[in-house]
Amino acid sequence: MNKDMSIHTIHHPDMLFGQLVRSSIPKGNIASISLPKLSDDFIVITAQDIPGSNSIKVFDETIPLLSGDHIIYKDQPILAIFGPDRESVHQATLQVNINYTIDEEPVGAVQPPEHETSMSWGDCESFFENPMNTIEHTYMTGNTSSVPSSPLGAVAIFKDSAVEVWATTQWPFHVRKTVSEVCGITKRKVEVYQNPYDHSSGGLLLEPSVMAALSTIAAIKTGKPAKMTSMDPVFRPELIVTKKTAVDQDMVPIAEKIEFQIHLGVIPLFADEILAQVMEGVIPIYHLEACSIQARVLTSPTVPRNYFFGFGFSLGLFTSAAHASHIAQLSLMNPANWLMKTVRNSTKRPKHLVHPRPALIKELIERTVERSDFSRKYAVYEMQRRRNRSISTFTGYTRGVGLASGFGVNGFSNTYMNEHNYSVEVTLDVNDQVLIKSSILHSSTEEIWKTIIQNQLGINSEDIAICQGSTSEVLDSGPDILNRDLTVISLLIERCCESIKNQRFKEPLPIIVKRSLKRSKATNDEMKKSAFAYFTWGSLALEIEIDPVSLNPIPMGVWITVSCGHIYDQDRLKKKIQARVLKELQAVMGTETRSTYQPHIDVEFHKDEDAITADPLPNILGLLYAAYTSAITQALNEPFTSIPAGAQQVFEFIGGKK
Amino acid sequence: MKINCLLNNKQAFFNTYSDKPLSLLLTEEAAITSLQIGCGTGRCGNCILLIDDKPVLSCLIPAFSVAGKRILTFEGFTKTRFHSEIKRAYKKHQAYPCDQCYAAKTLIIHSIISDNMDPEPEDIIQALQVNTCNCLNYDELTQIVQTAAGFRRRKRRVRRS
Amino acid sequence: MYEGVRAPAVFNPETILEALDVYQRYPRSILWAGGTTLMSQLREYPSHDNKDILYLGGVSELHRINRNERYIEVGPMVSIQRLLTVGQHILHPVLAHACKRLGPPIIRSQATIGGSLCHPNLRLNLATALMILETQVEIKDSRSTKSSTRWVPIHRLYKRDGSLGLIHGEIITRLRVFFEDANFQCFSIIGDPFYHPETAVIFAVFAKYEKSTISEFRFSLSLPSIDIFRSKEIEASITSKDLPLSAKEIIAISGQLRELLSNYSSKIQKVQIERSCRILEKTLQDMNTKVFAN
User: Fold this and answer.
1) Structure confidence at residue A47 (pLDDT)
2) What residue segments make up the domains of chain B, in order of their start?
3) Mean pLDDT throughout C37-54?
4) If interface means Cβ-Cβ distance under 8 Å, which residues of chain A face chain B?
5) What is the Cα–Cα distance from A523 to A120, expressed in whole angstroms?
6) Helices B102-115 + B138-160 axis angle, to 10
7) According to CATH, what is the number of the domain B82-160?
8) For position A523, what pLDDT does the model report?
9) Cβ neighbours of residue A493 under 8 Å, at least 6 residues apart?
């Protein structure tokens, strides 16, 4: 077996296949479970069969593995059935009969008090007492789900009182810890290997660990290898942001009140980090004399939201960039000029927030405007908008163009980064060959790591290997969420190389260097300098046409300019951006859009060789959503404030207008 | 149900569930690693293989319908002389499909140029639409297909002469 | 492997008579054509009800294509791709377009005409296009001791509520599409009829005009999960009108359609009604343009 093997292809002669039986109610108790008559080849695992702890820990949060008698959310795993083949197991799960006593409690979203935060600067209220003008909009990101592009799963083999686990996980050490705690065996006796997984949507954390733990119990109880796979959809968090902005007579913002709530399902995993990330996203880049932000997390008896791509930063950025576009449109100025006018340095903004770089933003906007011919298009479509023409099959096209600009963050905020300690090891051996040991494996980032080593140590790419062993051979580099493969790990590899460079030709080979993100010794005040360590800056223009027959908003072109530090492979990054933008456009345009549609996507990089390499995607996606809704706003002459936005939403808009 | 077929030019025998999707049958019971089990509903187009030289989405093919058929997966295709032409075309344009769709795209390209060694861009795009992975755009794919078709034409001329 | 599970039995008849015989003996079995629809339902494998499978792929009579001067006859097991290839120069453009829009060639090679017409819940491309071509369908019934054969117009294949009208035990064995000249034909799909039928619309038009007077106008409109419509009233109100149609006339016709759909069923989504009216307006404008161009 090797790490490139899909979990589906791992097969052993006696292997058992497992499937979960989930709750069909959101809240209540299990009155009785009736199981079908099963032969000895089957094994049923309920909460009572768990030898260790019936829970999974993810940093500070704990979630039950199997429900026990009490159900806390819809689709909660209740039991697992393992059997000799997937077909008979599936038939068996269909025959499981569960009776519930349903709780009468409301099942809507509630607000747990512990996950609430606020921030402010300046005296916001005074600006709202007698404002020249206020602009208020509520922005929403809908409850969207996506099916992973490849199945998730785990295989467990129990041999000589030790367990070998294969899992489609982004964090093999989390699987090891979970298996060890759930099965009540020491970590030393659990070896976890990684299989390829879909990391495009942030990678899942819980599911592979759940499947690994249950497969291990089945493997231990029967002595046979056990496997579990799933293609269940992944749900994104839903965000609602209300922004109220006081502006002066020139429509320049002075103060802003922001309230947001983010819905995370039953257990708010990473709640504080998500609040920190969204908070950074919702704060606009334009200058404000005062600002107040109220933020809270909502929970409900639904599946935990599991979309880790950017931890909601992109969604927050969408709201701030879209709001900026709406104000710019009301100012009757070209949004590019409006943005360049309103973004400036400010001493009022708290130090721990990201501070806009006006010169860089200006440059990025100018390049985007020039390549997209934004100003001309904006003027033409603005004229069309002011005529307030309806979308008719007789009058031809209805178009709009949107522009958004802002920054993006990568990695955990400082709070998380300082709480956990993850490492990478680089070895230069006697044959002048290099071995990297890290638990994060991505073929695309591996090339970047090799380039770093090639540049720093002058070693050929073919002499650099990445250790692909189990948890006993590699080091715990933490979860692969928030582009840590690129930002944190690349940085640690660079530091390892620097150390090897200093020791090389002085010390005997092999030279082994291990680097970790250490706990900061900084004081609380110093830590507040900046919540994030890795930034990107970007500007994006998008042109759409509303099809007068289907009412679909059809993107005509996307122009992106980004600054994301040193770029190791421009072509590869450009393609990655184009592919991801296309995928997101299809998602944001609504479910019925055919995935074969390909608009022109132009990407240009702004050179910033000295800055640390960071992934520009969280930034670009936020800007994409904002430019998309701004373009629809111009085309329909009504503020459009939610995503996804497809034909159904356009129809509701024009229906309302009628 | 018992099924005999020719898998990658070797006799294969399966005792399987009659309407099991071919993609699952081959990955679970024949250790075929090149098939990407994606959506399982024919939407992603990552599970393509050739049955009697024609490309099919293996997740939409029931096991019972392959009895007596000739199945060629990407593993088998890499051993044919046709693979190198497509590999060379990828290299020439420095554009490679991602790990997820490499096998599927390569087999579709092969089937396009097997049908027509001078394909029109419209036909290329239409054929490749079955695979929805965005890692390469249609311009790149059209160029790759036309280059690979050129290599195949040249090879055929050489073989004839 | 497969312990305690009964996999569906697969019957593989080689003639229509054999197929009818099996169907009579195993009336609960599923008729299996190309299988694209049946296999694309992720949660349907392994099937819950274990119905046996009557696979029609081996029945050579169902794969035939015949033509004469008046019509083309096509077996229901003919793949969409084969129909396109064989009928390249003779198919009505509206039918050829409906075939092409069914999916990429790989899907078209697997999908069959019979499978597309007999989807239990969806009325898709081919049914919409064949409806305006007034196609005849041959149906054989396996239930009577001496198997009976009848020819029906394609719209009789579906019930008034839009569901499939074939009675259990009946098999489609041939389709007959008549050759007929038209001055204007068009086929359009809006949305995704297969995965999101609740918002999708399929539309086909077949029209003749002499000089600038419309002598015949047929249109069919499929709201895939609901029904296929052909409104004789709307067709009649367009026939005998002079081209180009004025904007006022087009809006009046589209209003007629809006009224028809609004009163038809509460299951029709408003966005579907809007799209249907807009596609009709657009098509009538395209017909105007074509007249101008000539």
Assistant:
1) 93
2) 2-77, 82-160
3) 76
4) 4-6, 8-9, 11, 85-87, 147, 149-151, 196, 231, 443, 571, 575, 578-579, 582-583, 595-596, 598
5) 22
6) 50
7) 1.10.150.120
8) 44
9) A424, A426, A436, A449, A452, A453, A515
Verify whether the Cβ–Cβ distance A551 to C1 is below 8 Å: no
Closest residue, chain C, to B37 (C-alpha)? C42
Backbone angles phi, psi at C138, to 5 degrees: -95, 130
**Is pLDDT above 90 for C202?**
yes
Per-residue confidence (pLDDT) for residue A521, from 0 to 100: 47
> Distance of CA A121 to CAs A225, A244, B26, Å?
59, 15, 62
Q: Among A84, A549, A655, select the one facing C3 at the smallest CB separation.
A: A84
CA distance C124 to chain B (A): 17
Which of the listed residues A202, A231, A260 is the one where a domain comes to its end? A231
C53 closest CB neighbour out of B18, B48, B108: B18
Q: Is C152 on the interface with B (CB under 8 A)?
A: no
Same domain flag for A368 and A461:
no
Give the closest residue to A40 by CA, choosing from A79, A12, A80, A82: A82
Angle between helices B82-93 and B138-160 (to 10 degrees): 130
Does A287 fall in a domain?
Answer: no
Averaged pLDDT of chain C? 89
Check residue A157 and give its pLDDT: 94
A569 in any annotated domain: yes
Number of domains present in the structure of chain A: 3
Hey, what amino acid is at B159?
R
pLDDT-derived band at B102 (thresholds 50, 70, 90) equals: very high
Four-way CATH pick for C184-293: 3.30.1780.10, 3.30.390.50, 2.40.128.600, 3.30.420.40: 3.30.390.50
Tell me the residue type at A390: S
| Residue B1 contacts C where some CB pair is shorter than 8 Å | yes
Q: Which residue has 């209300």 as its token pair?
A: A242
Chain centroid to Cα A109, Å, comes to: 22
Residue at which a domain ends, from A208, A231, A254: A231
Check CB contact of B133 with chain C, cutoff 8 Å: no
Residue A573 sits in the same domain as residue A481: no
Shortest distance between the Cα of B42 and any Cα of chain C, in A, equals 6
Lowest mean pLDDT among B138-152, C27-41, C138-152: C138-152
Question: Tell me, what CATH number does A91's domain have?
Answer: 3.90.1170.50
Q: Kindly state whether residues A63 and A175 are assigned to the same domain.
A: yes
Chains with 3+ CB–CB pairs under 8 A to A are: B, C
B105 touches chain A (CB under 8 A): no
Q: How far apart are alpha carbons A5 and A152 in whole angstroms?
A: 12
Residues of chain A with pLDDT under 50: 1, 519, 521-528, 658
* pLDDT tens-place string over residues C153-172: 999 998 877 788 888 788 99
Contact list, C192 vs chain A (CB under 8 Å): 591-594
Total residue count of chain C as it appears in this document:
294
Q: Is the bond preceding A510 in cis, omega lying within 30 degrees of 0?
A: yes
**CB contacts, 8 Å: A147 with chain B:** 39
pLDDT at A526: 43
DSSP C152: E
What interface predicted TM-score (ipTM) does this complex get? 0.91
B2-77 sits in which CATH class? Answer: alpha beta
Residue A127 lies in a domain: no
A460/A492 same-domain check = yes
* Beta-carbon separation of C199 and A91 below 8 A: no
Three-state secondary-structure class, residue C91: coil
Does C282 reach chain A within 8 Å, measured CB to CB?
yes
Domains of chain C, by residue range, sit at 10-55, 62-178, 184-293
Domain that holds residue A326: 309-412+530-657
A556 lies in the same domain as A489: no
| CB-nearest partner of A549 from C1, C5, C190 | C190
pTM confidence score = 0.88
A393 vs C4: CB contact, 8 Å cut-off?
A: no
Residues of C in contact with B53 (CB under 8 A): none
The domain made up of C62-178 has a fold known as: 3.30.465
